Amino acid sequence: MNKNIAIIPGDGIGPEIINEAIKVLDAVGKMYGHTFTYTEVDMGGIAIDKWGDPLPQEMLDKCVASDSVLLGAVGGEKWNIVPGHMRPEKGLLRLRAGMGVYSNNRPAKIWPQLASASPLRKSIVDKGIDFIIVRELIGGIYFGEHKTFEENGEQKAVDVLQYTESEIERIGRIGFETALKRNKKLCSVEKSNVLDSSRLWKSIMIKLASEYPEVTLTHMLVDNCAMQIVKDPSQFDVIVTENMFGDILSDEASMITGSIGMIPSSSLGGTSCGLYEPIHGSAPDIAGKNIANPIGTILSAAMMLRFSFDMAEEADCIERAISVILDKGYRTADILPADENEALACTKIGCSQCGDLIVENLRKE
């Protein structure tokens, strides 16, 4: 099978971690008889420097025409001084909208080999951390009207949060469908005690529940959810929520797993062409030093194989190889144990060596 993948290396450590993901994809392709071709796309700071635009239309067209998109990371201090509409992150928002990917799916799963890296107490971690946050991606306050103006002699800023019934329904269905494939538990998170948009959200989720009798639907206010994620994450299986809440909660969830460098994500819409990326930033302070953790990007590539290309066996192969190198004690700097005695039992590796080791441990089941 041949698949065309649009590759966005981006900024900072982006090119380094993308190189390792390509290395693993090529090895998996060779093992299973697939061919992956890559179309490189400029987005973010590099595109601003090269084209004067965080995502030129020509680059967006390449992404839309691909079978899926794999992204490294964008942004950095260098571009903090550019106007808001030209920031590297605007390219990412435009990419999501242009691809029509409205559902961001981010797992929060702790690898047993890294349990000690979680900031949570051992008694909490031992109960298990394995849930997924389904976040609405192209609506809400991030895509509403934004304006700053003067009123009564002072500056005033307005950001509009709005959702339509159809937007809520389509992300709600993703939440229910995801729950059906897991443990049939769905928690809808909103702020219905304050916001009209959340009251509409809750009413539509209740209406959808009648179509999914196998799924147990619960509701939780976002502030309570933020507390419960650190108090008892084992209670969650699938969380579905709106854009800004999901942005905040998914970052919180990633930290309780021990390292942001281990977490992949997928963004999907009405087609199989998805956007896959690690959840961490561009980390310009460590760029070019060969110390970045590429596992989040490699796991994102595995998610792409699973959800966009229907290559579940190939995705499993990658995940097994990662588990093997963790079992053998290999650790990039971000997941090296803080405890000196534990660290002595591990072998510190760099970004490229991590990719090489994963390739070496790829095995068909």
What is the structure about, briefly put?
The protein is of the alpha/beta class. It contains 13 helices and 14 strands.
Strand content: 15-25%
Helix content: 40-55%
What does the largest sheet look like?
10 strands, mixed
Distance between the termini: 20 Å
Number of E-type strands: 14
**Count of individual helical segments:** 13
Task: Kindly provide the radius of gyration, computed on alpha-carbon positions and rounded to a whole number of angstroms.
Answer: 21 Å
Quaternary class: single chain
Biggest β-sheet: strands ordered side by side in the sheet: 2-1-3-12-11-4-5-10-8-9
Shape: globular
Task: Outline the low-pLDDT stretches.
Answer: none
Q: Output mean pLDDT.
A: 94
What does this protein look like?
The protein has 365 residues and is of the alpha/beta class. Helix content is 41%, strand content 22%. The strands form 3 sheets. It has a 10-stranded mixed sheet, with helices on both faces. It has a two-stranded antiparallel ribbon with strand order 6-7. It has a two-stranded parallel sheet with strand order 13-14. Helix 7 (196-209) links the parallel strand 8 (185-190) and strand 9. Helix 1 crosses helix 10 (295-307) and helix 11 crosses helix 13 (351-360). The two termini are 20 Å apart.
